[in-house]
Write a structure and sequence with these properties.
Largest sheet: 9 strands, mixed
CATH architecture of the largest domain: 3-Layer(aba) Sandwich
Radius of gyration: 23 Å
Number of domains: 2
Shape: globular
Number of helices: 18
Structural class: alpha/beta
Number of strands: 17
CATH topology of the largest domain: Rossmann fold
Distance between the termini: 10 Å
């Protein structure tokens, strides 16, 4: 394996402009980046993990005993090149200043990988990222549309789609130019659904993998897309030699869509292959877990300890229900808060004896649906505080500022962890919490989270739309004896750490051999 190329919308670093006009670099945000950054570093140096950051993604950093770096027989680690997009004006300035967009050649610490940042025109990027990737594909795969009103595919939507094609072509061009003969390319997520086919057309000698970090919509919902766009996306993914998904459920949905919408495709469900136009794509399932070593190391640092002390002083000896999420529509925060309110209304014995700490970090605030959803979260939280709060007890603490150490501190102190998405590719919060819980926590988990496939035996499972059922699950969780709680939590932690990020990535690369 002489060269590995990674392609994703976000890269391992991002930039901001200082007051004096100079560029300041910081590590890129997002769970996918957290995982890939450590993995790419480990391919070059299979030592301790390099990164551990951000809620919902702390475990996506690398490492541990299952690290999938070069084997002892491998004398030369592969060259790793990461291709990403400039996300804002500061990123674009950094890309323009770097030789041919290569940040590593401009002296930036890019975490062990060579990084090419693409300076895609701002208008093209905005339409591809916001109008198509986040407002269309994300909504389709997470079943988020209010179908009497949306989607609405008109002439403007077609222009947005052209930008999405141009954005994917920019990645395919960069990968084709940089790839050595026979290199492996790992293309990540729904932003780059067209890139595998475009890259194969440019470089048929490459071995190409695509991985979907989101769910995949069932045919009945996928069919909301215009027929030609839906086909183009399927054709795009099938340009890969290997298409990976987080769970069997999402892989089967993809196969169902290929069978329904691609008349010329031969779908073999037993072998999990799709043959189309003389090319065969293997479909794989690669669950993503937590790197316990990296996560616990980060949680043991001083800033986390300080926040844990502050939280304990704030909560006292009350039980603590924790959730850690972005204010993403699919995370179902409003119903989770409604379930907590119903708990306090129906079980007044918990008043004054429990606190709900809800992390709801802003997400995609440039989209109106997300601004309104964030406002709804804040309104619901205020209603709970007004209805039940007393001079000596705050029933709910809503944290809207991105404070990763405080999230880790909350995991450590949690008695109950609430993870109730209406649909989620995996949801690593469900795996991170049990790994860090110091006294053992009860996991209340939505059956629609990808993590449910691995954790359902020891979690309290709920229908995410059933507020009353979720409320009663919280009640059961708070009543669970400590010994039983600790035993279940230990089994959850073991399941959560079975497939750490390096193993997950190495399995995708191995599938190309």
């Amino acid at each position: 394996m002489s060269q590995v190329l990674v392609a994703s919308n976000r890269g391992p670093v991002s930039f901001s402009l200082s007051e004096n006009g100079s560029l300041t670099m910081r590590r890129g945000g997002g769970g996918l980046v957290s995982g890939l950054a450590g993995v790419t570093g480990a391919l070059r140096d299979p030592g301790p993990p390099r990164f551990a950051e951000r809620p919902g993604a702390a475990s996506r950093p690398p490492g541990g005993a299952h690290a999938a770096g070069p084997s002892p027989e491998t004398s030369v680690p592969p060259e790793v090149l990461w291709v990403c997009a400039a996300l804002g004006e500061a990123d674009r300035a950094a890309a323009r200043q770097a030789p041919d967009g290569r940040l590593d050649r401009a002296g930036h610490d890019t975490g062990g990988a060579a990084v090419r940042m693409l300076d895609i025109p701002a208008a093209t990027f905005h339409r591809a990222y916001n109008a198509v990737a986040n407002s269309t594909l994300w909504f389709v795969h997470h079943l988020l549309y209010d179908t009497p009103r949306s989607p609405h595919f008109d002439g403007r939507a077609r222009r947005d789609w052209q930008s999405y094609e141009a954005y994917n072509a920019a990645f395919a061009d960069a990968l084709a130019r940089d790839a050595a003969p026979g290199a492996k390319a790992a293309i990540q997520d729904y932003h780059l659904s067209l890139t595998p086919r475009m890259l194969r057309d440019r470089r048929p000698d490459l071995r190409i993998a695509h991985f979907s970090h989101t769910p995949w919509a069932p045919p009945e919902y996928y069919g909301l897309l215009p027929d030609d766009i839906g086909e183009r996306i399927l054709h795009g993914v099938l340009g890969a030699d290997h298409a990976g998904f987080l769970t069997d459920r999402w892989a089967e949905a993809f196969l169902d869509c290929c069978a329904r919408f691609l008349p010329g495709a031969r779908v073999d469900r037993t072998a999990r292959t799709v043959a189309l136009a003389g090319h065969v794509t293997r479909i794989g399932v690669h669950g993503l877990g937590v790197d316990a070593w990296a996560l616990r190391r980060r949680a043991a640092e001083q800033d986390v300890a300080e926040r844990a002390r502050a939280l304990r002083e704030q909560v006292g000896d009350r039980q603590l229900i924790v959730r850690v999420d972005r204010t993403e529509l699919s995370k179902n925060i409003v119903r989770g808060l409604a379930a907590y309110r119903e708990l306090l209304a129906n079980h007044p014995e918990w008043r004054g004896r429990v606190v709900h700490l809800a992390f709801a970090y802003p997400s995609r605030y440039d989209l109106p649906e997300y601004r309104e959803y964030t406002a709804a979260v804040q309104r619901t939280a205020k209603q709970i505080a007004d209805e039940f709060g007393t001079p000596t007890w705050d029933p709910l603490v809503l944290q809207v500022n991105d404070d990763y150490p405080r999230s880790l501190a909350a995991y450590r102190l949690a008695d109950v962890l609430l993870v109730n998405p209406i649909r989620d590719g995996m949801n690593l919060v469900a795996k991170e919490g049990p790994v860090l819980a110091e006294r053992g926590c009860v996991l209340v988990l939505s059956r629609e989270a990808g993590a449910a496939a691995e954790l359902s035996d020891d979690a309290l499972m709920v229908n995410p739309y059933d507020v009353s059922q979720t409320s009663e699950a919280l009640h059961r969780a708070l009543l669970m004896p400590r010994a039983q709680r600790a035993e279940r939590c230990a089994r959850l932690a073991a399941a959560a750490t079975a497939l750490p990020p390096q193993r997950w990535f190495a399995d995708q690369l191995s599938a190309l051999d």
